[in-house]
Design brief:
The protein is mainly beta. The chain has two domains: 17-165, no CATH class; 176-317. It is 0% helix and 61% strand. The protein has no helices and 17 strands. A hairpin with a 2-residue loop joins strand 2 (37-48) and strand 3 (51-63). The two termini are 30 Å apart. 26% of the residues are buried.
């Protein structure tokens, strides 16, 4: 039975390690993978004298473009002859998913398999590892079987049954011992028109994995009187929510929500409102900063202002 861990853990107690893929070079000009996590499910299957059998199913949540490493060991028994030669094999699999916009992923699979036949002389020249590479496209809930190793010594085979999909939201009920706390520093900068944003405030937020922490800021900005000479001001009310949803490979996926409104309030007219409703998903390492820019435009010069630009900066410690 599969189970969700921060990284993929082998049934044979060999770890699946998660490492960030190197950034594309200028020469390669490869596009950056979309932000977000992919849940990859891998069942390792063996075929030998005993028939078709499973080495176990492993599950990992990997960020798009990151590589997970899975190691599996097995003994394959010859499918021919009465004595049944035995081959000890160790397969290392590297899995790199690229998230697809509609769900699913493009999955790059690289394997290296080393085999040693029991009873072979220690003086014999060691065999070169067997390597395979494959790239497949998977729709949500689609499974594919990929052959990874065929033994010349035992006629045994290894294969991977793989699938990928978006991981479920981290909203399950958790006991106190399961809680994972995350601290954020949220900084807000603001600018009028085309000026550079200037720092306004910085707050510390404390959140639990799968649950939101929020910060509300509001203030009034005086405006010039309207054409009739009535006094007016701009009311700004913005709430920022930070929801850490997933941890993998030492990095955190966070959903940043920005909601609120800007309203032009006049003494002799109904308020003119401009709602803010923005959501973004970012992935950060401890101490790394991620920024989100929000622009709000007025409906015209008659409101006494043109554009307000917010810049939100998030730094996490976990």
């Amino acid at each position: 039975m599969s189970r969700l861990l921060r990284v993929l853990v082998s049934i044979a107690a060999l770890p699946l390690l998660v490492s960030a893929a190197p950034p594309p070079t200028e020469a390669s000009a490869a596009p950056l993978p979309p932000t977000g996590a992919v849940r990859v499910t891998v069942e390792t299957i063996a075929v030998d004298r005993r028939g078709t059998w499973s080495l176990g199913t492993d599950v990992a949540d990997l960020f798009s473009g990151d590589t997970g490493v899975l190691e599996k060991s097995a003994t394959l028994i010859s499918r021919g002859g009465e004595s049944g030669a035995r081959e000890m094999v160790k397969m290392t699999t590297r899995l790199t998913p690229i998230l697809s916009p509609g769900g699913g992923c493009t999955l790059r699979i690289e394997t290296e398999t080393k085999g040693v036949v029991a009873g072979r002389s220690a003086k014999a020249k060691p065999r070169q590892p067997d390597r395979t590479r494959a790239t497949i496209v998977l729709e949500p809930e689609q499974e594919r079987l990929v052959d990874t190793y065929a033994s010349a010594a035992t006629q045994g085979r290894l294969a991977l049954k793989v699938r990928c999909e978006a991981p479920p939201a981290a909203s399950r009920a958790m006991s106190e011992s399961d809680l994972r706390f995350v601290d954020f520093v949220l900084s807000v900068a603001r600018a009028e028109g085309d000026k550079d944003p200037q720092p306004m405030k910085s707050n510390q937020l404390h959140a639990v994995l799968g649950r939101a922490a929020s910060n509300l800021f509001s203030f009034n900005v005086p405006l010039d009187s309207d054409a009739a000479g009535a006094k007016r001001y701009r009311r700004e009310k913005v709430e920022v929510t930070l929801t850490p949803t997933l941890m993998s490979g030492g990095r955190m996926q966070i959903v940043i929500g920005v909601h609120g409104e800007l309203a032009t309030v006049s003494a002799n007219a109904a308020p003119v409102t401009h709602p803010i409703d923005h959501e973004d998903t970012v992935v950060i390492a401890p101490g790394e900063k991620s920024e989100v820019d929000i622009d709000v435009h007025s409906s015209g010069p008659e409101e006494g202002w043109k554009r307000v630009h917010y810049r939100l900066s998030v730094v996490g410690t976990f």
